[in-house]
UniProtKB/TrEMBL annotation:
GO terms for molecular function: catalytic activity, acting on RNA; pseudouridine synthase activity; RNA binding. Its EC number is 5.4.99.-. Residues 196-207, 221-236 have a biased composition (Basic residues). GO terms for biological process: pseudouridine synthesis; rRNA processing. Residues 4-149 form the Pseudouridine synthase RsuA/RluA-like domain. This is Pseudouridine synthase. The keyword Isomerase applies. Residues 190-236 are annotated as: Disordered. The lineage of its organism: Bacteria, Pseudomonadati, Pseudomonadota, Gammaproteobacteria, Oceanospirillales. It comes from Marinomonas profundimaris. Belongs to the pseudouridine synthase RsuA family.
Length: 236
């Protein structure tokens, strides 16, 4: 039986959605697997790991910061990242929408990753460096704002891991079916049990006029009807 989870290595400048938006590339150009939807998002100008599922409860658990799946990013920044900046990231950064939680931040050597198209703009008199940054929350464009706040603007952002899942062995623009881990399935089971208890409460109104129970997948956005793609590894 096909897995309920897909791991996709999203290229640069691809929207994390199937519906069209102007002339921007979308997931529809890469993934041809009906009824799968992103569990969380990855910015248009960011690259790397995106998980998709056809189960609403699994989608919620992966995407929600309440379940605290850590997300690890490889970040190329302008300048040689300093020890002081790394320590600030570890302590938490004050952003306009609040203080970030302490992150795991460390300097890393240049990772062995694919070439980005278009390439990152380099300045001869300004060096660049890489760091690994692991966070457990999901503020809007959080990583970019965090590095800018400590004086090192992000030039390239790659999400390497979500919980136990990584980009290892998945080339850019390609996807594979994967199996949910036991801890993840346990979280899903607990979430579904909590939802059932709330739904069965005598003080809770019926979710619909007919009184029929709500399917686990009703909360998922619908994908527009489209012809099936003949390629799964197209690169824009």
């Amino acid at each position: 039986m096909t897995s309920n989870l897909i791991l996709f290595n999203k290229p640069f400048r691809v929207l994390s959605q199937f519906s069209a938006e102007g002339d921007k590339s979308t997931l529809a150009e890469y993934i041809d697997s009906p009824n799968f939807y992103p569990a969380g998002r990855l910015d248009f100008d960011s690259e790397g790991l995106l998980l998709l599922t056809n189960k609403g409860a699994l989608q919620h658990v992966i995407a929600s910061p309440d379940f605290k799946l850590p997300k690890t990013y490889w970040v190329q920044v302008e300048g040689e990242i300093s020890d002081a900046a790394l320590e600030q990231l570890r302590q938490g950064i004050e952003l306009k929408d609040g203080l970030t939680k302490p992150a795991h931040a460390e300097r890393i050597s240049t990772p062995d990753v694919w070439e980005r198209t278009p390439a990152v703009r380099h300045r001869e008199n300004i060096p660049t460096s890489w760091l690994s940054l692991q966070i457990r929350e999901g503020k809007n464009r959080q990583v970019r704002r965090m590095t800018a706040a400590v004086g090192f603007p992000t030039l390239r952002l790659i999400r390497y891991a979500i919980g136990p899942y990584t980009l290892d062995d998945t080339p850019v623009g390609q996807w594979v079916h994967i199996e949910p881990t036991e801890p993840l399935l346990h979280e899903v089971t607990q979430f579904e049990e909590q939802r059932k208890r709330k739904t069965s409460s005598p003080h809770r109104r019926s979710a619909g006029k007919t009184g029929q129970p709500v399917s686990n997948d009703k909360g998922m956005a619908r994908r527009p009807t489209r012809p099936k793609s003949t390629s799964r590894t197209h690169r824009k």
